[in-house]
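Deviations from the work plan: none for this task. Representative record:
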Amino acid sequence: MNGVDAYPGNSGERSTVSETAWALMRSMIRIRRVEERLARLFADGEVPGFIHLSIGQEAIAAAFGACLTDADTVASTHRGHGHCLAKGVPVSALVAEVMGRDSGACRGRGGSMHVADLARGMLGANGIVGAGAPIALGSALAHKVSGRRAVAVAFFGDGAMAEGAVYETMNLAALWQVPLVMVCERNGWSEFSPSDRAFAGDGAKLAEAFGLPFLALDGDDVLAVHAAVGPLVAACREDRRPRLVSCATHRVAGHFEGDPQRYRDAPERAAAAAADPIMRLAARLCVDEDRDARARFDTIEAEITAEIDAAVEAARLAPDPDFDLARGDVYG
Amino acid sequence: MAELRFAKAINQALADAMRDDPAVVLFGEDVAAAGGPFGVTRGLLDAFGPQRVLDAPISESAIVGAAVGAALCGLKPVVEIMFMDFVTLAMDQIVNQAAKARFMFGGRGGVPLVLRMPHGGGLNAGPQHSQCLEAWLAHVPGLKVVVPATAADAYGLLRSAIDDPDPVVVVEHKGLYALSETVDETLVRVPIGQGRIARAGRDATIATYGALLREALVAADRLAAEGMSCEVVDLRSVQPWDEALLRESVARTHRLVVAHEAVEAFGVGAEIAARMVEVAFDDLDAPILRVGAPFMPVPFAKSLEMAYRPGADRIVAACRRLME
């Protein structure tokens, strides 16, 4: 039972389940290939500043993205490219933003750590660890007060479990009872330190202490995350109560691109790379054995490569952001 | 004409704004059931219900963060920070999130939130409950900062702050809350960034804001008895501040004192003085002088705090120096 028939929640409609799996595959590949391209552009000097890649963590973004609508809101982290793409930010807008072009999602004002698309409910990546949590809380409050059947999702990493804002948010969400899903992406690292040296607590016990329903998921198993998150988001829309989800995952890349990662040993890095959620799903879709599956996989790869090629080309041709226009947007 | 307490004017502005716009919501520590630590939000929970008037625990960072998120999603939150000193706990959300969102997101959305916070001494509240930190916030691009000195302005500036598409910090002096004054029956909005001449004069301009306006007017009275005619400008907003009005005033009086309760060094007065030197140097007959608190924490004991806080005496002394 390791094919898609084993997908939890499968009620017998193999084709539907399979289509969901392929949609998740496409979403994960898009995130992966965009980030790999950004890494190359960074190495070539076409991406200024610094970027944080979510390679290895795509399953969580893809699974949540598939369960959310434009009305739902997401507050993300410094490692937010995947969340943005899964929430519907076009590849062209994200790539152009990270390259600092006027055609970027934020007109080149924010860069990688601040990609936002308010019309699609993307409230921003965030350069401050833990800061997205209270922002998502406020958007959940807005959903509730406005009577929208929308939910808010706060992504944060295990590094943020050391930030007070996350605890304040848990407490306030529990007091106010708002439709907020708090998602800890536990990649095992808190910047340059292993998370067991940064967080002494226990997520399940924390959730219990605050009376929040809690789910611990294998965050590298996209089908499992999707199967769990779909009903969870649907329930949150109905009861408008907060929840905490913990997704175990792996950070394949360094804290930032170019990080020499002297603090990691070879076996740990190899294990992180081997946990690859794309390879796991490919195995379940029998991409290596099934000729049709392989063809489909290759088609997705080719389409996404073309999409990224076009996005990069367009960004290169786009003008630099205009300084006076930027200055004019300090106030409305 | 009617008598209106400063605190009641704020309460009235909140009630009117909530009545006019269902997007206006209120939250903060003890603002709902308890009616606010200074009674400013009294009655609003009953009038508008728990959906729109929410008590929050002592979590300044999450309170302001929630206001940012709510503002990004269509609400107009008005948040209270119990004492301005506690703004330290919310600075990330104010400085890194609220202030930058519009710019950082490419001008494609803003954060229409209002942060109300009482500042100032005179209550012997000690070093952590008395500070005037408005210069910190005025220094951050993306924030607006207003400091009403009168009940009418407390109403009018708060209404404008709630209407504003950007984050506005409304600084209220604790010493003013209980004071009453005579106001017009019809309270109106006061545009942000517009000062007013509180008293006309010929020989020197005293620019001030907030509670020190009363002291400046006392000083002007005393100087008038000595034959010196002082113009008093109530800035009302410190970010943006009314440079044009002050420039006109200085063009008439040729002398300027900037007075505030906040610490003098690196303060609002320093910015105004520097700017006026740049744009009005030829009009000036004397150096611009600042009146502010000494460079030390706000002390507790009555005798210490009285010695610390700037008032009419120091403003009078500065004006006399201008005429030497």
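The radius of gyration of chain B is 19 Å.
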